[in-house]
C-alpha cells in the first residue's frame, strides 16, 4: 500500500484564557504568536493556529514547512502525527509514522531507558517482538551504556535526546516527521545522527520537515509549504517558490 498524507481545509484553534482582555494586550499577544485571535461570547480568547490548510503528499515526496516563529509549523506536524485533532477539515494519513517533534514526547521519567524504548516504540505501532529484535541496536546507538537501566529522570537533556532519536530512527517508517531539533548530544553524536538521518530518509516514503532553513528545503525537498500566521501562503514544487524574494516564481 502506498503512503499518503492528505489534508483538506484543516483549521485549528488554541484556547488561551478566559478573562477580560484589554485591546492593547490582545494586540501584543497577537503579534507574539503570529496568528489571528478570535473571541467567543464567553470572552474566551482563541488563537487560530492553522487556517484552511490543504495539501497532498504521496510516495517519494519530501516536503519542507517554512515560516516565521509562530507561523504554525510545529502545530501542523502535531496534527499530522495525530497529537492534535483539527477543529475543522479532514486529515487522511496512510502509513506508519515516526515523529521527532518534541524531545520528551512519549518519555516517562519514572521508567528506565530500556522501558522507555518499549513504551515509545509501542506507541509508534511496533510489536514487542519487533522492538526486542532492535533493542540492543537502539541502546548501542544511543550511547547510554549502563544508564539505559536507570530511570530517565536521572538523565541529562542530551541523554534524553539521544534516547528519543535512537528509537525514532532505528525502525523503518513510511512517514517521517521532523522538527528542526537534531541537537542530540555533542558534536560527535550530531555527526552520527546526521548520517543515521540520511539512512532513514532513504528508506522512508514520505518526509515532512519543519525548518527555518530555506537552504535545507532547496537541498533535500521537492515540495514546500509556506505558512504565514497559520495561513497557507504557498504549497507546491520547490521550483515554484522564489526563496530569495519569498514569493511564488510566477509573481
Question: What would you say about this model in short?
Answer:
With 251 residues, the protein is of the alpha/beta class.
Topology, pairings included?
Elements: E1 4-17, H1 23-33, E2 36-39, E3 45-58, E4 62-66, H2 73-80, E5 88-94, E6 97-100, H3 113-123, H4 128-142, H5 157-169, E7 175-179, H6 187-203, E8 206-210, H7 214-220, E9 223-228, E10 231-237, E11 241-242, E12 247-248
Parallel strand pairs: 4-8, 4-9, 6-7, 7-8
Antiparallel strand pairs: 1-3, 1-5, 2-3, 9-10, 11-12
Helix pairs in contact: 3-4, 3-5, 4-5
Q: Which topology of the largest domain does CATH recognise?
A: Rossmann fold
The level 1 CATH classification of the largest domain is Alpha Beta
**Cross-sheet strand order for the largest sheet:** 6-7-8-4-9-10
Unreliable stretches covering 5 or more consecutive residues: none
- Per DSSP, the total helix count is 7
What is the rounded Rg? 20 Å
CATH architecture of the largest domain: 3-Layer(aba) Sandwich
Globally, the shape reads globular
What does the model show?
This protein has helices at residues 23-33, 73-80, 113-123, 128-142, 157-169, 187-203, 214-220, and strands at residues 4-17, 36-39, 45-58, 62-66, 88-94, 97-100, 175-179, 206-210, 223-228, 231-237, 241-242, 247-248. With 251 residues, it is of the alpha/beta class. It has two domains: 4-95 and 210-248, P-loop containing nucleotide triphosphate hydrolases (Rossmann fold, 3-Layer(aba) Sandwich); 100-204, 3-Layer(aba) Sandwich (Rossmann fold). The strands form three sheets. A six-stranded mixed beta sheet has the order 6-7-8-4-9-10, sandwiched between helices. The protein has a four-stranded antiparallel beta sheet with strand order 2-3-1-5. Strand 11 and strand 12 form a beta hairpin. The two termini are 38 Å apart.
Amino acid at each position: 500500500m502506498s503512503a499518503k498524507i492528505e489534508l483538506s481545509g484543516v483549521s485549528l484553534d488554541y484556547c488561551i484564557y478566559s478573562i477580560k482582555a484589554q485591546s492593547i494586550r490582545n494586540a501584543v499577544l497577537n503579534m507574539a504568536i503570529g496568528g489571528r485571535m478570535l473571541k467567543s461570547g464567553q470572552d474566551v480568547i482563541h488563537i487560530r493556529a492553522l487556517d484552511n490548510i490543504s495539501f497532498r503528499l504521496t510516495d517519494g515526496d519530501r516536503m519542507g514547512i517554512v515560516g516565521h516563529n509562530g507561523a504554525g509549523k510545529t502545530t501542523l506536524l502535531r496534527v499530522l502525527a495525530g497529537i492534535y485533532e483539527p477543529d475543522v477539515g479532514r486529515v487522511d494519513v496512510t502509513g506508519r509514522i515516526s515523529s521527532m517533534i518534541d524531545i520528551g514526547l512519549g518519555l516517562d521519567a519514572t521508567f528506565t531507558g530500556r522501558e522507555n524504548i518499549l513504551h515509545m516504540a509501542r506507541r509508534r505501532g511496533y510489536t514487542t517482538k519487533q522492538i526486542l529484535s532492535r533493542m540492543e541496536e537502539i541502546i548501542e546507538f544511543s550511547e547510554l551504556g549502563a544508564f539505559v537501566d536507570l530511570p530517565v529522570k536521572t538523565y541529562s537533556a542530551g541523554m534524553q535526546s539521544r534516547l528519543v532519536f535512537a528509537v525514532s530512527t532505528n525502525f523503518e517508517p513510511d512517514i517521517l516527521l521532523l522538527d528542526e531539533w537534531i541537537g542530540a548530544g555533542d558534536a560527535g553524536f550530531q555527526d552520527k545522527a546526521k548520517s543515521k538521518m540520511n539512512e532513514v530518509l532513504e528508506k522512508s516514503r514520505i518526509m515532512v520537515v519543519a525548518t527555518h532553513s530555506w537552504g535545507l528545503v532547496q537541498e533535500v525537498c521537492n515540495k514546500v509549504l509556506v505558512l504565514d500566521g497559520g495561513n497557507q501562503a504557498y504549497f507546491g514544487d520547490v521550483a515554484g517558490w522564489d526563496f530569495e524574494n519569498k514569493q511564488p516564481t510566477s509573481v
